[in-house]
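Worked problem 6 (solution included).
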Amino acid sequence: MKLITPPTNCPVCDSKLELVNDQLFCRNASCEAKVAKKIEHFAKTLKIKGLGPATIEKLGLSSIMEIYSLNKELAEEDLGSKIAIKLFQEIEYSKSASFATVLAGMSIPLIGSTAASKLAEHVNSFDDISEVACKAAGIGEKATNSLQDWLYYEYPELKEFLPFKFDRFVSKPDVNSQTICISGKLSSFSTKSKAAEALEAKGFRVTDNLTKTVDFLVDEENKGSSKRVKAESYGITVISDLNYFISQL
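Solution. The predicted structure is:
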């Protein structure tokens, strides 16, 4: 049997590798391979079509902020006119992404789409994030610490380059203008019918069927129901505390 000697340095940036639970990790935040993966994840989460690994390499992108400061003429030289025009359209569309989507796209350890959706029920900008808001959203201590670290070390460099202007997640809806689906048992109301009455009084239309046209899914149990999985795939905002949601209307 041939003995395999594990590498001690990252093959991309040559930084010292760290062994954790029999896995090797590069901790260099500026490692080109890690940065490329972050950009790729961001583009995929915000559905920027055409910004895959090959395009990221061709454009020489080295950070998320560079997506929104691309030089169109240089991009056309690297990609060709038609592809570049289409890419710039996709980038422009991405500027209307929700706060939850952008947060989930930042590759913050332990902050995925579920945690981002929960937090988006309590705050609607990066500057409003606090430990109190994280606790109210049911975000665990490790995830909260990870988010706070990102806000302190990485967010300041990104802040002025991000083009997003997030609207409040809800703003006094007109009658039947927004639809809500309720899934699973509720902790905030004794019955679904009472919850439905409270929502209808605020102008929402309550439905039992979850489709792409639904605006919100109420899921206070968070047990990975099929409706929650479907809602997250559709980009529908998930409400984990209905009482708090209604109190903000």
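Discussion: Confidence is low (pLDDT under 50) at residues 168-176.
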